[in-house]
Amino acid sequence: MKNTYYITTPIYYPSGQAHLGHSYSTVAADVMARYKRMQGFDVMFLTGTDEHGQKIELNAQKAGLSPKDYIDPIVDNFKKLWKLLGISYDKFIRTTDGYHKRAVQKIFDDLYKKKEIYKGKYSGWYCTPCESFFTDVQAKGGKCPDCGREVRREEEESYFFKLSEYSEKLLKFYDDNPNFIQPESRKNEMIKFIKEGLDDLCVSRTSFKWGIPVNFDKDHVVYVWLDALTNYITAQGYGSEDSGDYKKYWPADVHFVGKEIVRFHAVIWPAILMALELPLPKRIFGHGWLLFGDGGKMSKSKGNVIDPNILCGRYSVDAVRYFLMREIPFGSDGIFVNESLIKRINFDLANDLGNLLSRSTAMVEKYFESCILENSEFSNIDNDLINMAKSLQSEYQKSMDNFHFSSALDKIWLLISKSNKYIDENMPWKLAKEEKSKPRLSTVLYNLCECLRIISILISPFMPDTSKKIQNQLGTSKDICGWETASKWGLMPLGFKVKKGEPLFPRIDIEKEIEDLNKIIENKSEDSNDTTAELIDIEDFGKIDLKVVKVENCEHIKRSKKLLKLTVNDGKAIRTIVSGISDYYAPEELIGKHVVIVSNLKSAKLCGIESQGMILAADCGENEVKAIFANEIPAGSKIR
Ligand code: MSP
Fold this sequence. Notes:
six-stranded parallel beta sheet, Rossmann fold, CATH 2.40.50.140, Isoleucyl-tRNA Synthetase, Domain 1
């Protein structure tokens, strides 16, 4: 019987669309799943969506939909993106699935019967987007310690899980299982967190309805983390009639999670499992964040095209997968920049790997009519290359087993560089000139094809399509492209037929590409259709407060040729707005008019005057700008 390997991603909130950050965790888990399958493990790779909670309830309300109708298309988009990215998950759990809901209710009942859950009153600082309560210390300054947004005081009757009783047990478990939390730095954070003292955990809510009802107290819904974390066991049938996969795969070999949710996985989840008297997962790996835009904060598109659908369409899925895994060591944060992605494609993929394949196959075609029939003229300079190729697998394995994806790829690229250098040292084009050097030339090309065979095997978890393309061009058969063949030399049988194909990764003209990307960003791309325009979520739109205001007064600003100072009435108060429209309107043309403004823009000083909002105006081209007048709409009306 095969050994099992159970790997999970976090389950994603479908409160917004799937993005590159989500893709990061998921691609990493996919790489690991493919790697383990290649090694012959019986892999269970689980991903899914975390669909309950107040934030989704609120978003759905804003969109005028039921929560389920609101999330269904978003969940579909997650699945579509995973398909595009070649994610080979075995199961996809939705926490709204009936079997999960029933199992969570059962788990809640069991914990209550075991007196691990009790009824109490909760008072704390609540952050709606993060769906988390915080203590006074954590929510210093009225801000959420995780996302920095405002928190508000809330009190309600709740059920509590006795987390506070688990401090010692957790610390002992960490001691006994030193590799449980990785990387090491995250483990130290968790130890510190526990030593500061654990509070009991609120596990039910009455202030919103979109959740799994507690069986024996229907006013309460199960609060999101108990619902979410248990997915890792319910997806395999725990709490259902058919629990075969649970018995087969649990405990999980690793949960991949982002660094901000390590706490939930390394503290709360093990405590819940201890309370249920179930085995604990073997590892929690807290990876870093992919940061976008400036200042390191995650922002949607500060000069960067980050939509994975666009990136995969412009380059290739494998290029995106490769970049995500190569550029940033898995435990660390890293900034995503389009230019770095393009450079990696040009240098690592087109120059190093692509050229190695195209040069090698082209020479076999040209000098030997696509077929190598001889491999007997060894030279001492082959030894280095052959030894490096033979030992690559074990070096690579060390990195992969520790989730050091970037270093595994570094090692493969050492062999790629070495092979390219081997071509330059042996100068096949010179050997081809003399008939007597043909046996040596044949051996050189054979060695290059063998290296490419080994490379194609080891890159396959990262770049499955590219791996297949290389194997097709080399004309290798499947039986010499498995894991166990990657450390063996000389498996290509003489007579294999090479077929040079299209370049694996066409080179990109960086300057032109950046220009094109900028066009996309400005949304001015000539073929700006739905797939290239950057889309925003309804929640992003909801953040913009558009209002109709009446212009009470308007005057030129002395120090500026372009700016007008408008005094406007927004139905509740008078505010000042500075607007750069003096080329297009005389002040008297605006007085008395109703215009549309963005009313929740942070105020800014322009020519020493504080502007409290922005007037909407249309750029009509030909040096014409028109304010958006709304005279028939009363001042103070909100635009939705
Ligand atoms: N629903 C919870 C997880 C429950 S698991 C039992 C949740 N969802 S989430 O959608 O907000 O985030 C899911 C994962 O995506 C987290 O691990 C988070 O770190 C990861 N990422 C979201 N944005 C990210 C980046 N920009 N970079 C890397 N990963 C990030 O938390």
